[in-house]
Design a protein that fits this description.
Elements lengths: L9 E4 L2 E5 L10 E4 L2 H9 L6 H18 L5 H16 L6 H16 L4 H33 L7 E5 L14 H10 L3 E7 L6 H12 L4 E4 L4 H6 L5 E4 L3 E3 L4 E4 L2 H10 L4 E4 L5 E2 L16 H4 E2 L2 E2 L12 E4 L6 E4 L2 E3 L4 H5 L6
Parallel strand pairs: 4-5, 4-7, 5-6, 7-10, 8-11, 10-15
Antiparallel strand pairs: 1-2, 2-3, 8-9, 9-14, 12-13, 15-16
Helix pairs in contact: 1-2, 2-3, 2-4, 2-5, 3-4, 4-5, 5-6
């Protein structure tokens, strides 16, 4: 059985971008049309589009939209203004390195393109399409490599994931959920256990939605149930995504991932990170240099219209944490599966200077 996906969160159509509005799932499936760069900036900030690879794709199209809006006809002046557009997009989400990777790639193409401003604009759109197409292929390869290293057991596997690293977080198919999709297609998966992922509940809202759409059995648990489920023998393997991975293999992912990794270590359960090469930041020696985004306290203190705590309480709301490399059994990429200590020697040459 071959399992693909019909979920594509960032799509170019005619002259604009169509984004699945992930803030409305699972109650409502709706699409937002993005025709201006400023609208893309806002969509990334408020997480209409989210997930490191999907953010990178959205930013690439956002840069093209910005380029299309610029009035300059002189090439030098145009590139100066385009660089300012890129900086505005780069300021939207500080942790997801794919955002910066994508914008750097787009700006490099713009500077290297000779000819008129119109020719640069056309080349930028082509490059944004290429980034999206490559990511879909990358996710399918991650799924294939991830399947090859899943534990061989008499029974079908029970896999735990945290947050959403699925089709919604990429061009389609997913990284961690790419492994899930491949395992399900190979009839090696019994079910997915999905952490709810407080405070924005991406696991509850998005991961479960993806699984239900494609008939993959899924059980939702609260974040603080993971250790209990492991102790009861309900979890065979953990696979999560990442927003930035340092050269030594330390991996930043949605807040709570570090706790899951510690629990997996305590219960002798393999913990894998699935991410494309573009998520690895070889400029950072270790995870201590990864910037951690802090988000609005309302994500913690209010659910819907209901405030959960009294006035006067102080808040701390980091969106990500960093899992140390020594807790990670392997990092699943489109080029294969590697120990964290192997990233620099075996993968750094794949990235362009």
């Amino acid at each position: 059985m071959t399992l693909k996906t019909s979920i594509y969160p960032v799509v170019w159509q005619d002259d604009h971008v169509r984004l699945i509005d992930q803030t409305r799932l699972p109650a409502e499936y709706s699409v937002v049309e993005i025709k201006r760069c400023t609208d893309m900036v806002e969509a990334i900030k408020i997480m209409i589009v989210r997930g490191a690879p999907a953010i990178g794709i959205a930013a690439a199209y956002g840069l093209y939209l910005g380029a299309r809006e610029l009035p300059e006809t002189d090439r030098v002046e145009f590139l100066e203004s385009l660089d300012r557009v890129s900086q505005t997009l780069a300021a939207t989400r500080p942790t997801a390195v794919n955002l910066f990777w994508s914008l750097n790639r787009m700006m490099k193409v713009a500077r290297a393109t000779t000819g008129s401003v119109e020719q640069i604009q056309a080349r930028l759109l082509d490059e944004a399409h290429a980034i999206a197409t490559e990511d879909l292929h990358t996710c399918q390869e991650i799924g294939r490599h991830g399947l090859s290293i899943l534990p061989q057991m008499p029974q079908k596997l029970r896999l735990l994931t945290h947050c959403n690293a699925g089709a919604l977080a990429t061009a389609g198919y997913g990284t961690a959920l790419g492994v899930v999709r491949s395992a399900w297609a190979a009839e090696r998966l019994e079910r997915v256990y999905a952490d709810e992922t407080r405070p924005r509940l991406q696991g509850a809202k998005l991961t479960t939605w993806e699984c239900v759409q494609e008939g993959i059995p899924v059980t939702l648990i609260t974040d603080n149930m993971a250790a209990h489920c492991m102790k009861l023998g309900k979890i065979d393997v953990v696979v999560v995504g990442a927003d930035r991975i340092a050269a030594n293999g330390d991996a930043a992912n949605k807040i709570g991932t570090y706790s899951v990794a510690l629990c997996a270590k305590a219960h002798n359960i393999p913990f894998y990170v699935a991410a494309p090469l573009s998520t690895i930041d070889f400029q950072l020696a270790d995870g201590s240099g990864i910037p951690i985004e802090e988000r609005d306290p309302s994500e913690i203190h209010t659910v819907g219209a209901v405030r959960l705590c009294p006035q006067g309480v102080e808040f701390y709301n980091p969106a990500f944490d960093v899992t140390p490399a020594d807790l990670i059994a392997g990092i699943i990429t489109e080029h294969g599966v590697f120990l964290p200590a192997e990233l620099q020697s075996k993968l750094s040459h794949f990235q362009p200077a």
